Amino acid sequence: MTSPRLQNHPKNRLENSVPFLSRLWQGLPLQLFLAVVLPLTVLLLVVTFGSLRLHHQAMRSLVGDRNLRAVQAAAASLGKEIEHHKALVGLIASTVDSQADAAAYLGEIQPYLEGFRAVGVWTPDGTLQGAYPPSEGFPEPEREQIRLFLEGQNGQRLPGEVLFDVLGQEQGITTFVTAASSPSGRWVVGLLEAAPFFQQGLAGISGSPRLTVLVIRSRDQILYQIGSLLPVENLQEHPGVRNAGSGESGIDYFQTGEGEHVVTYSPVPSTGWVLMIEESWEEIASPLLQATQAAPLILIPILLIALLALWFVLYQIVRPLQALQGQAARLGQGDFAANREPVGGVPEIQHLQKALEQMSGDLQAAQDSLHEYIGALTAGVENERRNLARDLHDDTLQALIVLNQHLQRALRRRPEPGEEESLTRIQSLVQQTMTNLRRVVRGLRPIYLEDLGLVAALGMLATDDERPANLQVRFSLAGPERRLNPEIEMALYRIAQEALSNVARHARAQQAWITLSFEPDQVILEIRDDGKGFSVPAETTAYARQGHYGLLGMQERAELIGARLQVTSAPGEGTSVMVWVPEPKPGQG
Hints:
The chain is of the alpha+beta class. It folds into four domains: 4-50, no CATH class; 70-293, no CATH class; 294-445; 454-582, Histidine kinase-like ATPase, C-terminal domain (Heat Shock Protein 90), CATH 3.30.565.10. It has helices spanning 4-7, 10-26, 28-50, 52-95, 102-108, 140-153, 194-201, 239-244, 281-293, 299-332, 347-412, 417-444, 447-452, 454-462, 486-507, 549-560, and strands spanning 118-122, 128-132, 162-167, 175-181, 187-193, 211-218, 221-226, 250-256, 259-268, 273-280, 472-478, 511-518, 522-529, 564-569, 575-582. The chain is built from 16 helices and 15 strands. It is flat, with a radius of gyration of 42 Å. A hairpin with a 5-residue loop joins strand 14 (564-569) and strand 15. 53% of the residues lie in helices and 18% in strands.
């Protein structure tokens, strides 16, 4: 048995402590702490405090880049507003000479004059002929300033040039003047209040109390100012103002008694002005830098919250929105039943789906109404064509036939040589007119279609001698022929007619083929060519925007008879137009 004295010996105390430390090290919590948590914590602290300088520089650049984008956008916005007012004044000047009463004309276009404090029409000698508002628009002191302004422009203006300048510089910049001369020499003058103009144009960047916003006309003249970081009396010595006169956008940093300031500037297009923003960026950056130091302490709860938020966003927002996006895409392609399956998600997404479902119902109803209208319109056009063709055939063509017979009788009576030549020439003109009239009648009313059916009509269409000589069209029939509903036959004939017209006008083809196939449950019409082809729009809604009005008309005719139309083409590979009419029955559509 060891005595207490030996147990307290330093050597024995060390030997007794080793097993305890060994067991402690072998425990998982300490291993995780010493091997993972502690090194990561030290690393995060080193990275955090070691990167303060980098954060400092990054925040400095971030504030500068942000302000530069803001000042560029605001300067461009001011420039666009100025160009808008100049264009409006120029348009009024180009049309005012055609108006008998200038004041009445300005009153008529009053809704377009919003933004102007006043607009007036002046003679070259400075006399006001008409104004809006008619009474208070141009007080007498301002009229004198405008007379002096116009007097300074005589002999110096360019034809069609629109001027934009400040008015009354010696009394402070409170008003802008926009002026343009009419072809008769009169001037149209518009006045803009400087303060409201700038307040509206700079509303997006002037809300912070830490900002100073300046619009500078020259180094010694400020048109507009918000904030007080920049003293007006030292304007010319200010480093940002000196560099802003270069005519380009830029960023400057300089030290002041309050810390480092960032100045961003950008020219206002077509004015010679410079828009400048000054800000003490350290007031923005300091709280963020302090928060950066404490970031490692909140990484774990932030990570857990982020994972929870990520799960919620993925399953309650992203996935339902993706499903809703797919439904909207199918709806855009004409599938009005695509959004009936619930997508779930947060209540806002469910409400959005209900609104989309209601909209699809309204859209379907509107499309049905439009199709009914187009169908009625198409039927009306075909009826008018038939009536016109019947009138031309029964009246005009018959009259020409009778006239030709009388000419033949006159020629058989052996007239004088001079008369015989005139009668022969007249007879030739009558016969040519009859030929042209028969061609017009065939175009208006395809008689072969009504009497002999679609097959005969397409066969005659393929042998039409009016198309280019280098284009050969072949017609082929597959399956047992049967008559269809007259509306279906007319629609298919018109589609083929339009397709061949496009081939003759645009395709530069040498051969074209018309194929009509009668199958037990459908009829298929195909028109293809070996021409140059083109890039077919992905959606039929783009036909009108890209000028393919013929394709749009064929698509509408196919939809009216419940058929499906497909256009296939590529540059250099020809074009194919196919129409499928489902389940046709004799005498029915």
